[in-house]
Specification:
single chain; Rossmann fold; 12 strands; six-stranded mixed β-sheet
Length: 348
């Protein structure tokens, strides 16, 4: 039976087995990667038969037989934010490497929408949920009940009872940013732009800024709070300008906000970095393409994504918080000269 004939009815596993000259069990082993090994030439013959017949596995039946969909649900707050966009890409990469697919959704920072999305993904029988929660700091994340899929909370500042949580050591990243502005560039009044509190209050970036300005004996400049977005950063910077409160350096809580801050200051004719150097937090690739390029504390999203998928593939019965160190990516916005990356060895 060829593809044209197969179109007249649904192709089943037995059709593939007949075309490949193997048993239906062997077809199952090839599709599922086991439990028994299949010779490479036999597996190739089975896959060729599947392609020729246009065979598509019945995922509902596969779920019943194996107890898994090999699918992960991912809920993020804002996929226009370069940090979450990069995190989503790394989650997808890590999932594919482990044989999982990803169903991604966006909550837009809406707590009720987050609950609905988690419920919908659970109804689709996903094997696990990865969540960057938009919840207030006083409440548990919107995970319905203990029978829900394995849940890993992303972008967290600390532990949440009953869940694996993953996040950066944001306080140390903030301290490194302030130390760089004070020690390397001699700035004495360092302000901050940040978004509203999330699962931790105060936000560890805010706590790090406060502690490091105190430790360095520098004046904490004005604090401007607005949305975690380009527009939020723009509005925050405009308020600093309009009230005459712009300090002689700024630490910005996210790359998304920093992009808006750069726009507002450049519109106002502020010389960056001479008049107001800027250091951000996230270290996304977007910072390479701003003007000037953003110095930023880099979150290790690749490593965090790998751990999230490891916890999905091999659940740990002892939930805990996994904190990742950040490193400062030095570009031009702080006043340092840009060091271009070297693509490979240079012949002398």
């Amino acid at each position: 039976m060829g593809r044209d004939e197969a179109r007249s009815r649904r192709v089943i596993r037995a059709d593939v087995a007949r075309a490949a000259g193997v048993s239906t069990a062997v077809v199952s082993y090839v599709m599922n990667g086991g439990p028994r090994p299949v010779a490479p030439e036999t597996a190739a013959r089975v896959r060729a038969a599947m392609d020729d017949l246009g065979y598509r596995p019945n995922h509902a039946a596969r779920t019943l037989n194996l107890g898994t969909t090999r699918t992960i649900g991912l809920v993020l707050q804002d996929t226009l934010n370069p940090y979450f966009a990069e995190f989503a890409g790394e989650i997808d990469r890590a999932a594919r490497e482990r044989g999982f697919g990803v169903l991604a959704a966006e909550s837009h920072g809406d707590r009720d929408a987050e609950r609905r999305l988690l419920s919908d993904l659970s109804d689709r029988q996903v094997d696990a949920l990865l969540l960057a929660s938009s919840g207030p700091p006083t409440t548990e994340p919107a995970v319905a009940n203990p029978r829900d899929p394995t849940t890993v909370l992303l972008d967290c500042a600390g532990p949440v009872a009953g869940h694996h949580t993953i996040g950066p050591d944001a306080a140390s990243g903030a301290r490194a940013a302030v130390a760089h502005l004070a020690q390397v560039h001699g700035r004495r009044r360092i302000g901050m732009v940040i978004g509203p509190d999330g699962l931790a209050s105060p936000d560890p970036r805010l706590a790090g800024w406060r502690s490091e300005t105190k430790a360095r004996g520098v004046t904490p400049g004005a604090l401007a709070v607005d949305d975690w977005s380009n527009a939020g950063g723009y509005r925050a910077a405009r308020r600093l300008l309009d009230t005459g409160a712009l300090p002689d350096a700024l630490f910005v809580g996210s790359d998304a906000q920093a992009i808006g801050v750069l726009r507002a200051l450049l519109e106002a004719g502020i010389d960056i970095p001479r008049a107001c150097p800027i250091v951000s937090f996230d270290g996304t690739g977007a910072g390479d393409f701003t003007w000037p390029a953003l110095t930023s504390a880099r979150q290790p999203v690749r490593e965090m994504a790998d751990l999230a998928l490891a916890l999905v593939a091999h659940p740990d019965p002892d939930p805990r918080y996994h904190a990742f160190p950040v490193d400062l990516v030095v570009r031009e916005s702080c006043g340092c000269p840009l060091t271009p990356p070297v693509a490979g060895p240079i012949d002398s």
